[in-house]
Design goal:
It is built from 16 helices and no strands. By secondary structure, the protein is mainly alpha-helical.
Amino acid sequence: MHKHNTSVDLIHGPIMKSLILFMIPIFISNAFQQLYNAADTAIVGNVLGESSLAAVGACSSIFELMVGFACSLGAGFGIVAARAYGSGNSERIKKAAAGSIVIGGLTAILITVISMIGLKPLLILIQTPSSILEESYSYISIIGAWIIVMFAYNFMSSLLRAVGNSVMPLVFLVFSSVLNIFLDYALIVWFNMGVAGAAAATVISQGVSAVLCLIYMIAKTKELIPSREDFRFDREMYADLAGQGYSMAIMGSIVSVGSIVLQSGINSLGEEIIAGHISARKIYAVCNLPFTSMGIALSTFIGQNRGAENGERILKAVKDCIIFDFAAAGIVSVFLWTCAPALIHMISGSENTVILNNGSRFLYVVGPFYAVLGVLMQLRFTLQGLGSKIMPLISSVIEFTGKIMFTIFLIPRFQYDAVIWCEPIIWCVMTVWLIYCYVTNDYVKKTKEELKAAA
């Protein structure tokens, strides 16, 4: 199968070296994706003030739900394409691309229709303060209307990564991230669009990166472009795509719905808490990048090696990635313990000590728990790469249930302290479950037995 000079060979050679080479562009891509959100937040906070910052913060969990669903769906489709690539079946890759376009396109249209009807009632349901309700809605309704743009870019990126190319999606994203910051400023300051300008800037920038991605694929990776015949209904392929795509998307959605429930608890604590927490969440998301990026790299690595039947490489890669998690968590913790107040001030643009203190407290606690979160992510992505659909989904149900329990029983009593400790405690429970799932996975057990017999 044709291999491009921007691709990394994940099926042969040193494992950790190829994983890190493949992961670095994903890490930078994800960093720029966070830059989209952080630019929105920083420009809104610094130009429009604390009330507008709270308006964007109050709907941030809904933003994560919609965009997360589109991204996870694309990532799930990418795993199916990676397995096809690993097995050397070029016809199957095109069929996977065609089926992904059909399922993903229809799903994105459905999400848009639902969001048009349900967004304002949802904002009211999660106790968005009436003083910022209209502003929140003006932001999130634009994101909802153009969710198909988010899906298009993330799906094409996943398809390129499935064949080992993590560099080109990065190139397009860097360009559109710079465009996003320029548009943020232009639409908010020059055109006086308020927070709606920040949302429009995000959509336009993602649209540009999607178009660039498509042009590149048509020019350079024709094996990923399906023909009319590839769109013929293939029951087995559609079942595989829907199973992998929706299990990842639903898993992400369950997590995000849990976050929306948690957001309602945060919103009930007032505008100062919302502003401090949204600023801390932006920094938390940036510090999370090494772990999510390695997880995405690992899922492609496992998909390809599963297709190529390289079981020993898979087990070794999981072990190496967990060592990576602990090392990265140590570095992140020291960074947050040293810089938290300055970071909160930079994002929020606020001198308010309540905002600065609450945001910093969240980051101080979360730091060491990145090690747990990292292991959680690697095991979840591993199980998905191996084709497991239900077990990782149950881990999200654990998270969802935990967030509801905290919101109902603990936040009213312990206030922001309960918000701070909510996720670290839940991560520990989820990680125990995923370790059990990994150890008892049929493919993992079979590979271990084969290696023992060979020794």
